[in-house]
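Reviewers of the previous submission asked for a worked example of the structure-prediction workflow described in the proposal, so we include one complete record here. The input consisted solely of the amino acid sequence. No template or homolog information was supplied to the procedure at any stage.
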Amino acid sequence: MTERNRSRGIGRRQLLAAGSTAALVAGVGGFPAILKAQAPAIKVGILHPVTGPLAYSGTQARAGATMAIEAINAAGGIKSMGGAKLEAVLGDAQSKPDVGAAEVEKMNEAGVSAIIGPFASGIALATTQAAAKHNIPHIVDVGVVDQVVTRGLANTFRFGPGLAKVVDTAIANLVALNAASATKAKTVMIVHEESAFGSGMAKTLNEQLPQKGFEILETISHPNPTRDFDNIALKIKARKPDLIIPSNYYGEFVLLARTLRQQKVEAKAIYSILGGAASNFRFVNEFEDAAQYIIDCNHWVDPRKPEAAALRKKVEDQKLFFTYEVFLNHECVRLLADALERGKSSKREDITAALTSSSWAGHMMPYGPTKFVNGQNEGAAPVNTQIIGKDIKVIFPAAFADAKPVFPMPARG
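From that input alone, the workflow returned the following structure tokens.
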């Protein structure tokens, strides 16, 4: 160090620091993007049963949610929050309610702002309760059992229609189909899985179908999983109901339909309500013969909307099947993104407030504007679909229909 520098009190370290400061100032002018603060990521819990008997549906649901997150981030993130990106925190409920609740605890510790999922009603009853302890807004994708939204949990928001609305719609459309048919269906057999979903469906049908002039010959319950439907199919064949109403998840639905076909069980219709496979392209592609003419009242997109066709192409380009698990979760993420944009906050209480006041209408569903009343989206509604050839067609309501119903279905021999 020179005497001159000593006299001025400038040392080597100070010179280096001064040089660094000058470079930093120059960088601000030349490369502003380098120093621009990145908005913190918004953690979103994506919770589904990706192992266990419900793994297929859970995996499809996760795929739909992650596709939406990727699309939102690619489009610039949450713009009202400085382009904040969504970050998926993945959880596996393992097809068990208690595991789902435990995953919520992990997500709380991870600092998620909201949770989307968890597909099955039994799991949803547990996860929404667990999320309520931490005031985590929980958007339910499917979980149709009405108790999900009738327990006064302010954090719970179900985007799709509940069981009562689906069943009411299904019965009204069944009555209309029957009235228009030359050969009336009068007798019914119900086959349902034993969890909250299937049992709730069977209870409601037993209460309502007799009031519409249908005689219920028998209601048969089965566990999840069930690997053999031979005895149930033989019982159905012996009693010869006009209508078979199955209420099961994907694997059991497919096996029951295949067994009915193999044993040449004939009926005027297999009329499914929230059927696990009846509105599923995987079922159509893999077991077309068993799938033919099955009618379902279920979640579906509005076939008139171009964004629905675009998502279907994207899903199929990834070698996946376009199922309701995919598009419902995709739209649940978009619903959350809309709440974040309007609320301009990732705080749980702010998201809850934004969802409560939602009027989101930018979805691809056959719904009206979103309106939550006690956690239920009053704008949500199911449609009736029917498998015709290698496609799934909407047959009710007429405003969305792209095919006429085939009822009763032809004898298949």
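The chain is about 45% helix and 15% strand. We consider this example representative of the routine output the project will generate in years two and three.
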